[in-house]
Design a protein that fits this description.
Blueprint: E1 4-5, E2 10-11, H1 21-104, H2 107-112, H3 117-203, E3 232-236, E4 245-246, H4 247-255, H5 260-268, E5 271-275, E6 281-284, E7 287-290, H6 291-296, H7 312-329, E8 336-337, H8 348-352, H9 356-363, E9 367-371, E10 382-383, E11 389-390, E12 394-395, E13 398-399, E14 403-404, H10 419-423, H11 450-466, H12 488-494, E15 505-512, E16 518-525, E17 528-533, H13 534-544, E18 556-560
Parallel strand pairs: 4-10, 6-8
Antiparallel strand pairs: 1-2, 3-18, 5-9, 6-7, 11-14, 12-13, 15-16, 16-17
């Protein structure tokens, strides 16, 4: 596996094909464009899906109305059919009575009837009239029943057509939902890749520890006065991966009287230091070199001058770690190792001017680190500065400890008595606001005013709810690509239903985990108090912060002045 040395440090890369900052820009631009194209392609699908959803809802409403009408018609049909049967019975009785009476009726009865002839005639005429009315009512009922049945059939037809239309629309809606879901999943994946690339780019600083000056930029310190208030800044403890041996920590330990074995065991755990036959030469990108006399003497990963400042044991620890790393990387010299920051830095300048470093290499000749668990060498990662707390990792069956790198050996005296702080690491507690090449995009310090920091909090609110960072990327100078980046006002609108928008910051704070990382970030605002997961805050901050301001480490602090 390709290993990057970042900040004079060995670290595992997220993408082994990325070797320079420009490559990040190319990939960021490509993924940003892909996301933009995906959103463009999804737009008509989402519109059609929304239209279909409205039409399906309308169809459901219409079907419900038709079903109610059909229920009402069915009731009316039952009532009319009952009325018709009653009327038929009444008419049947009247017709029978009329028929019986008509048999008795004759002209002589009109002459000899004790009743008046007029009364008999009236009675007979009345029967005929009632029967005629019954016939008319039966005819009317029958016509109503026919009409109701026709209406019912028509409603049933309409309902069936709507149900079929609804079924077709739901089928199309389901298809669109599936396609949109696939596209959204793809967009989420691309956003994750974009976020990772941006974090990787902003986390890059490949200067070797050996090239770091003894004094750091005063503007990056916490005591810097930005000239305005309130002012907010994030300070990183160490950078970037914080795994394995801390080079400044080793320097501090050596100055405190620890020897190289004690130093290495503190950082790598259950190990032993053993002398082996390492071979005469190593294959490198600049040719095959004598292993001990040339390659190791030319490794430029720790300042040689430390050997004259009480740190000679640290140089020896570094020599053993570098020797072990080279053997593990090349599989005991059978492979080839690069000579740049992608592996371990080999420098002709260091080879020609090794100083105390050469003595450290010679006095530790053949010494390597082996795991007591496996009996084998492993990848001995190391970092310039861990911020006083290293993170454990595993390599070839060996696991290193999580370590509070302090004089008391725990969190109790951190950060005041961290070995790195006592050694004067310029990266122990720092606010980062420039790129590797020194560009700061007009910013002179890492401090943010209330408006800028409130904007970042709004970005954290949005990201914590959606996980979508595509429209949050650094908008002021586009150093990491800012396709579709939202303005402050647009972000405020977007976060209106997600706990914001926040306009004023009243307090900031963090909670540290015993595992050596920042656990939570606490922000007091005009919209109340918020507690964010530290990783979520870091990701959103690095996407949204103006210029080149960035959080380098998972162990960080927020300050307000």
């Amino acid at each position: 596996m390709v290993i990057l040395i970042i900040g004079g440090v060995v670290c595992l890369p997220l993408n082994k094909e990325i070797k320079a900052e420009d490559n990040y820009d190319v990939q960021i631009a490509a993924i940003s464009q892909e996301i933009a194209n995906l959103e463009k392609a999804m737009a008509p699908l989402k519109k059609e899906s929304g239209d279909l959803q409205n039409k399906i809802s309308t169809a459901k409403t219409q079907i419900s109305k038709l079903e109610l009408q059909m229920t009402d018609l069915a009731k009316k049909l039952l009532d009319k059919e009952a009325d018709l049967e009653v009327q038929k019975i009444l008419m049947s009785k009247r017709v029978r009575r009329y028929y019986v009476d008509s048999k008795k009726f004759s002209p002589l009865m009109l002459l000899f009837s004790t009743q008046g002839a007029g009364n008999l005639l009236k009675q007979f005429t009345w029967y005929q009239s009632v029967i005629a009315q019954d016939k008319n009512m039966i005819s009317d009922f029958s016509q109503e029943i026919v009409s109701l049945n026709n209406n019912k059939a028509n409603l049933e037809s309409q309902k069936n057509k709507l149900a079929e239309l609804r079924k077709n629309m739901e089928s199309r809606f389901g298809f669109l939902a599936g396609e949109i879901q696939k596209a959204e999943a793809n967009k989420k994946r691309l956003n994750a890749e974009l976020t990772k690339l941006i974090e990787m780019k902003t986390a890059m600083f490949n200067t070797s520890v050996g090239n770091v000056s003894s004094s750091d930029d005063p503007a990056s310190r916490a005591d810097y006065n930005p000239g305005f208030s309130p002012a907010f800044a994030v300070f990183s403890f160490g950078a970037p991966h914080r795994k394995g041996m801390s080079q400044y920590g080793a320097f501090g330990r050596a100055k405190a009287g620890q020897n190289y074995e004690t130093i290495l065991k503190a950082y790598y755990g259950n190990i032993k230091i053993e002398k082996i036959e390492v071979g005469d030469s190593i294959k490198t990108a600049v040719g095959t070199l004598p292993f001990e006399e040339n390659y190791l003497v030319g490794i430029a990963e720790m300042p040689a001058k430390w050997g004259e400042q009480g740190g000679f044991e640290a140089l020896k620890a570094q020599a053993i770690a570098a020797r072990t790393y080279a053997l593990a990387y090349t599989n005991k010299l059978s492979g080839t190792i690069c000579v740049t920051e992608a592996c371990q830095v080999y420098s002709k300048n260091r080879l020609n001017n090794p100083g105390k470093w050469k003595e450290a290499v010679e006095q530790t000749r053949g010494l390597v680190i082996k795991s007591n668990n496996t009996g084998e060498i492993f990848s001995t990662m190391y970092a310039s500065t861990s911020g006083g707390a290293t993170i454990g990792y595993s390599s070839k069956g060996h696991s290193t400890p999580q370590l509070w790198d302090s004089s008391c050996g725990n969190q109790g005296c951190w950060p005041g008595e961290a070995f790195e702080k006592m050694a004067g690491s310029p990266w122990f507690y720092k606010g980062w606001y420039t790129l590797r090449d020194g560009r700061s995009f007009g910013l002179n310090h890492p401090w943010l005013n209330n408006d800028d920091f409130a904007d970042i909090v709004n970005a954290v609110l949005y990201y914590s709810k959606t996980g979508d960072g595509n429209n949050l990327s650094q908008y002021r100078n586009c150093i990491s690509g800012c396709v579709n980046a939202w303005s402050k006002d647009e972000l405020r609108r977007q976060v209106a239903d997600k706990g914001g928008p926040v306009s004023s910051i009243t307090s900031v704070g963090v909670d540290y985990s015993t595992a050596g990382v920042t656990k939570n970030v606490r922000i007091g605002t005009d919209k109340g108090n918020f507690t964010f997961d530290a990783n979520t805050f870091k990701t959103a901050f690095n996407l949204r912060a103006p210029g080149a301001i960035v959080i380098k480490s998972d162990l960080f602090n927020l300050e307000k002045k």
